[in-house]
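Quick question about two entries, pasted in order.
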Amino acid sequence: MHLPVLPPVSPMLAKAAASLPGGGGYLYEPKWDGFRCLAFRDGEEVELGSRNERPLTRYFPDIVEAARASLPLRAVVDGEIVIAGPQGLDFDALLNRIHPADSRVRLLAGETPASFVAFDLLALEGEDLRQRPFLERRARLEEALAGARPPVHLTPATRDREIAEEWFHRFEGAGLDGVVAKVLTLPYREGERVMVKVKHERTAEVVVAGFRWHKSGGVVGSLLLGLWAGGRLQHVGVASAFTARRRAELVAELEPYRSGAVEGHPWAAWVEADAHEHQRLPGAVSRWNNAKDLSFELLRPELVAEVGYNQLQGDRFRHPARFHRWRPDRDPASCTYDQLDVAVPEELGAVFVAGR
């Protein structure tokens, strides 16, 4: 490829917030629930890069063809790959597209075709646009995609916060995550959480680094969750609300990550009994119920899950998290505290002020 911006590129990210920012100076967009994708096109050559800088090209031949038909001849476009089903966006169908067999990939491309929703422009012809303000990049993107045809789409956008609030509620039924707010003067800052996202609940991508067996035996009781901070994998809580059927399924899903898990694991010392004498660790006996077995097994810290949570207390989830889905498109190293909603302490402070 001969483009001013070449893969891999780490996409610009968003930090969660409880409400949309106001005061002008923002462009609001719906938040799409799919695979983040940077599409690089140089003539007939097209490459699709994921959020964790891994190629998606072989899994979405339909998007490759759509890029050749609708993207500018030489361009780098940031967007989202989604699959629209009868009930809205279908993330499970999207996950099924990540398959090792080329014949299966081709079959699914016909059965569950994907769409590409564009929302930023990093390069056009020979020009690198990353240092241009977002308002200019958006205008150039609108012009570049004026003749685009489905399955390539330009995301809706508005500078009106009231309209964005309406989208937040109205588009939920279509499977959209919420709304993203982007500063109009913002350059494209790779890998940084400089946008704002408001979702319908607090969610986080976490590393699943261990699990506990269920008291009934033979099935998974809970998943041990971690987030990276300062070079350490911090234990942040568990996900435990599973049906009996799901507990059994998890045994097979976790099995490939059990072998060789202790060697080099960030929590390897926790399997030693004397480690529990000085600090609270996931394998310790419950202080609320001495008969409750909290022994655990480590997993190689390579699995990423999306979980829902209600509140962050200190550096841990206040209550058990709710497992949503696996995120094979996420890099475990990207699972940091930066993604979490930091407004909770401010809300608590407001209560103290009112109490005075």
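Here is the second entry:
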Amino acid sequence: MYEKIKHILQHLLPVGFIIKNELKFRFLYYQFYRGRRFHCNICCKQLRKFVRMKNGDKLCPCCGSVSRNRRLWAIIKSDFLADHPKILDFSPSRCLYRVMKRQASIDYTGADYSGYFLADKRLDITCIDEADGSYDVVICYHVLEHIADDRKAIRELYRILKKSGRALIQTPFRQVDMDEDPKTVEPLDRLRRFGHSDHVRMYSVEGLKDRLAQNGFEITIKEFTERNDNPYGFEEKEYVLLLKK
């Protein structure tokens, strides 16, 4: 039902109008999901359930967060808000952009190149128009799988981080070896091979770790496994790569 309503609105209303009024639309929709069993840690609303997406993910009807957004925010709140860090976030989800912009304890900048996301700057991740050592923290969530020259992007992420700066990176992962082929360019072929029409590769956790390490990063792989109750609607098993320069 959620995705059907979203599809109808996108065809009836301009994108700019939808984004401007998104929270009003969502608040109305949220009324059907009020409850006490679940909790969104981004908008702090209590829910009787999350919206179940076609891909199985759990979406908050009030702020639009999906499971990976809520996990990322939990990590940031726990470990990345001290000492007023300067943070650069590539292609941020709208829910996280809004909540982090409200944090007085951080200097937060959202960056996008496509024009699809809420952002403060238009930056190309393979040629970032920022000085060396500009940021304490970089967030690069579900971006690298879209980038043809991901090694160049990784070098740029390393360059703009301050000494001992940190980064959080996640992509879709597969359990076996990485799969990439620059000759696979047709959207349907990419969908079949990489799981999405605009993805250019499928990473494995170890494959991405090795590629990041080759460019100078120290990497810690964080594996999260959830209990059955899972009140925050996190992914049941999830990997996040924590990097240090």
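Reply: Residues 87 and 239 are 21 Å apart (CA to CA). The mean pLDDT is 93. Hope that helps.
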